[in-house]
Each structure stands twice: as C-alpha cells, then as structure tokens.
Design brief:
The chain has 404 residues and is of the alpha+beta class. It has a domain of 85 residues. Helices cover 44% and strands 15% of the residues. The protein contains 16 helices and 14 strands. It has a four-stranded antiparallel beta sheet, sandwiched between helices. A three-stranded mixed beta sheet has the order 1-9-10. A three-stranded antiparallel beta sheet has the order 2-4-3. The radius of gyration is 22 Å and the shape is globular. It starts with a strand and ends in a 9-residue tail after the last helix.
C-alpha cells in the first residue's frame, strides 16, 4: 500500500491550500477552489482566509467576486454550515449536501410549528410560506432582507420558542436557501457583519439556474463531485474525515469514494486514508513558511483527525463546541494563535517554542495583516482557550506567549 507521511501531508497542505508564499494564487476564485469551499459562518473569516492565500488581494477584489461577477455564492450545506462555493459547484451541492440539510431542517421546523400551536400541519404551513416568499421576491429583483420579507409576509411575523431553539422568519429563509429556492445576494452591512438580501436564483445568477444548461445531477453524482474536489484539496483523508466534513453517512462516503476510484493509502500512526488515483506522487516540500489564519478557516476545519498539524494543541485551538479559533502556522503545523490589541494591531501568541527565524516571520506576517486591516478590529464568537489566555495576558500587561 502506498504510504503518505505526516511530512508529506503538511507539504500538500501548504501547496494545495495556497498557504506557502510560493503557492499563493492571484484570485479569490482560485483560493476558493484550492480548499474546495470557504467557511463563511463568520463574515470576516472569508475576507481573512482570502488575505492569507491571494497575492495583493483587496477588499474590492473580494466584493467583486461576490457582488459583481457573482462567481462565488454563499450556500448552506455540509453540517448545516454556511460556505462560499465556486458558482460552478452549486449543481453538485444543491441535490446532495444542501438537500440533506434542507430535509432535516424542514422536518424539525414542521414539528416545532405544531408543538407550539402555530398550526396543526407544519409542512403545509412551510409550503404556504414558501409560496408567499417566492411570489414576493419575484417582484423585487434586487432582493429583500429577512426583516423586509417578514414585514411583507404577515404569516412570518412569528417567534417559535422550543426547549432547544428560538426561531422566526430568518430560519424560514435559511430553509429555502438550503433547498435552492432562494439565494443570498448583496450585503447591506459592513464586511465584518452580515445583513444579506435574499433573492431568487434567476435574479442573482442569470436567466438559468446554475447547472440547468447541462444534465441535472442527482445526490449521488453531486456527492461524487464534492468528494473528488475534497480529495484533491485535503487528501489523503480518512473515511471518518469525510463523514464528518460532509455531515453525511458512511454509505454516502463509501459510494462516492468508489465512484471516483479512490486509492487506499497508509498514514503515520497506522491510519488508512484515500487519494485520487492520479494523485499518488509526492508534492515537493516548499521553502519554510508561516501563516496566520482566522477562526473557522477551512484548513484547520478540514479534517476530523488533526494530529498531523495540531500536535498536542487541539484543546487550546478548538473551543468546547468544536470550533477553531485563530491559528498561527509554521511549516504546516499549528504553533499558536493571534489576537488584536486595543489599537488594532495583530499580535501572535505561541503555544510552543519556534526558531528565531520562524518567530520573525510570524511577526512580519502579523504586521502585514495589521496593515491590511488598516485599523479594523475583528470580533469573534469563537474565542479558543489559546485566544482567551493571550487576551488575559495582554490585559495584564504580560507577554502573550503561552509556550507549553
């Protein structure tokens, strides 16, 4: 069996994810494809993930891809998470991962509506809401915010409160987005926050919905294409990695792996991973490199088994809910995190010793990010233990390094 060492996996990560300076790309579209899709749970993450991967990228470059060219589209999909997709990948995700989320969401919401007494038929209520929303949006090509939709559709002026969730009109729109009935359009707020307009896919993406020009994909072929791209970006990965990343079943993953003719490879520590059949050659190790990545960056969130790049730092880098904070990388390994000072400067905090040259490179990268943000401070709801420790030390006037 072909073997892929941890060193080779880190080399692949550096090159395939456009993180090593020599591997950085020229467009945000190329950066998105490098990691298959971008995490977009926090609006600022997308911008910071592009900054780390695209040469000389500007805020205008990113907004152009979203709002002018519309080559990148926000779509709820795997693990009920919001991602940025290359437009051409929408036909694969809509019948597969997104449809799976929509089915689960619809079942849960219909049950909630009945349990709180809004209706005695939750599915019928959701169908009526869908019809009214689509009829409304058909008359407003530029789209409407969730608040504007709620104000225009009286039946959406509700608050559903259950022991596990509280929701209203925005969640109905989220459901329709997962089903592909509506799409997220322009942002009416700052790049660090999201107050998106919703519109119909044909208004935002053209006369034909993406993919209608060619053969329609079903769930199986959709998953096959997503898994093929994931294996190129993240391979070798294990079956468990894919089940977790896709939010899917073992059966779905095994079928997709078989359909792309994935090849089993052995990993360090005795694991078994998968690669595409034409991707078994080693990737050349790049020159020494460092990177600063934002919370929930697709690289740090790409695998379930993370020892090869996290080492002993999992409990410091990930908060209790399983979300990654900011990370500082040296040659394919996480060695710390970064935070903002009150003045807006980016400051690196180490979790382990690094060489003087690596520390200097990390500090230079922090200065580069500080200059790019130009005084903006990025708040987050995903503070990792390492970030919290660094922030406490900063407030106390101590050094932020928490070297283990």
């Amino acid at each position: 069996m072909h073997h892929v060492s941890d060193d080779q996996r880190r080399a692949r990560l550096a090159v395939r994810h456009a993180l090593a300076p020599s591997a950085r790309v020229e467009t945000v579209e190329a950066a998105t494809k490098a990691v298959t899709v971008m995490h977009a749970t926090e609006p600022a993450t997308v911008y910071l993930s592009y900054w780390a991967r695209v040469n000389a990228v500007s805020f205008a470059d990113i907004d152009r891809a979203f709002y002018t060219d519309r080559s990148l589209v926000r779509q709820l999909a795997m693990r009920r998470t919001l991602f940025v997709f290359p437009r051409e990948l929408l036909p694969a995700v809509l019948p597969s991962a997104s449809a799976r989320v929509a089915t689960t969401e619809r079942t849960r919401m219909a049950k909630d509506l009945v349990s709180v007494g809004v209706t005695d038929d939750g599915h019928a209520w959701l169908d009526r809401a869908r019809d009214e929303i689509l009829a409304l949006l058909a008359t407003v090509p530029n789209g409407l915010t969730a608040l504007e939709v709620r104000q225009a559709v009286p039946m959406l002026d509700i608050t559903v409160v259950t022991p596990t969730a509280t929701w209203g009109a925005p969640r109905v729109l989220t459901l329709l987005g997962a089903a592909g009935d509506v799409v997220r359009a322009t942002n009416t707020s700052h790049w660090r926050t999201a107050r998106l307009r919703w519109t119909l896919p044909n208004h935002w993406l053209g006369e034909h919905r993406v993919g209608e020009e060619g053969p329609a994909l079903d769930a199986t072929s959709g998953y096959r294409e997503i898994v093929r791209r994931w294996l190129y970006s993240f391979g070798p990965g294990t079956e468990a990695d894919l089940v977790w990343w896709l939010g899917a079943t073992k059966s779905i993953v095994r079928t997709a792996l078989a359909e792309v003719n994935a090849v089993e490879v052995s990993l360090d520590r005795g694991g078994t991973g998968w690669l595409l059949p034409n991707d078994l050659d080693d990737v050349a190790t790049p020159d020494p490199w460092v990177a600063l990545l934002p919370v929930l960056d697709p690289t740090v969130m790409g695998w379930q088994a993370r020892d090869f790049y996290l080492g002993p730092h999992s409990n410091q880098v990930f908060e209790a809910r399983g979300n990654a904070g900011t990370t500082a990388w040296v040659d394919g390994r996480v060695v710390g995190c970064w935070i903002h000072t009150e003045s807006g400067a980016v400051q690196v905090s180490l979790l382990e010793p690094v060489s003087d040259s690596a520390r200097q490179a990390l500090d230079a990268e922090a200065q580069r990010l500080t200059a790019w943000l130009d005084g903006e401070r990025v708040a987050t709801g995903y503070m990792s233990p390492a970030m919290k420790a660094a922030a406490r030390a900063l407030r106390a006037g101590e050094g932020t390094d928490n070297v283990q």
